[in-house]
Design goal:
The chain is an alpha+beta fold and 169 residues long. The chain contains 3 helices and 7 strands, in the order αβββββββαα. It has helices at residues 26-41, 128-141, 152-168, and strands spanning 46-48, 58-61, 73-83, 87-92, 102-107, 109-115, 121-127. Strands 1-2-3-6-7 form a 5-stranded antiparallel sheet. Strands 4-5 form a two-stranded antiparallel sheet. The two termini are 27 Å apart. The mean pLDDT is 98. The structure holds ligand K1U and zinc ion (ZN).
Length: 169
């Protein structure tokens, strides 16, 4: 396993649409292992492959609490089959937009289909933080960041702040 660098805005790779994966094989599992290690080290609760410069439709996530055992989840070629009309706001963050948090409104429940770490097809419903996080991560697969859901002014201010942080580091 290896730690990978996380890309930050305004890196143009983050705007790429990620490609579907052909097979869940050992090479893909090695990528998912690296992503999980990178996500835990950040620390974060989700990570899309494009955030480490690999524009493939792969996501890792762990939304277990600090007191709980790790509960990693792996999503390959995820699809949203259904989204509720009801929406809910959540104060989101993103490892590719460090130190910026803002409220985004999204469907409160979604039904998903994806391939897991073993390559099995899973269909399930997500709600709460799971629903928020999977929609945030699936946006990454389309080259969309949570700041793209904010006003142009807030988005430009966020990118400016991240650029400033990068210069100061
Ligand atoms: O960059 C990412 O996509 C990961 C992002 C996921 C996310 C967070 C909040 C709402 C939607 C999606 C993060 O993990 S940001 C860091 C974070 O939320 C966190 C870090 C440590 C402990 C708890 C939360
Ligand atoms: Zn993100």
């Amino acid at each position: 396993m290896a730690l990978r660098d996380i890309l930050v805005v305004p890196d143009p790779i983050l705007k790429k649409v990620s490609a579907r994966v052909d097979a869940v094989d050992d090479d893909l599992r090695a990528l998912m292992d690296d992503m999980l290690e990178t996500m835990y080290a950040a620390p974060g609760i989700g990570l899309a492959a494009v955030q480490i410069g690999v524009p493939k439709r792969v996501i890792v996530m762990d939304i277990s609490g600090p007191e709980d055992e790790n509960a990693p989840r792996f999503f390959v070629n995820p699809e949203i089959l259904w989204a509720s009309e009801e929406t809910a706001p959540y104060e989101e963050g993103c490892l590719s937009v460090p130190e910026i948090y803002d409220e985004v409104e999204r469907p409160s429940r979604v039904k998903l289909r994806y391939l897991n770490y073993a390559g099995e097809t899973i269909e399930e419903e997500a709600e709460g933080l799971y629903a928020v996080c999977i929609q945030h991560e699936m946006d990454h697969l389309e080259g969309v960041l949570f700041i793209d859901h904010l006003s142009r002014l807030k988005r430009e201010q966020a990118v400016k702040k991240v650029r400033k942080q990068a210069k100061a580091a």
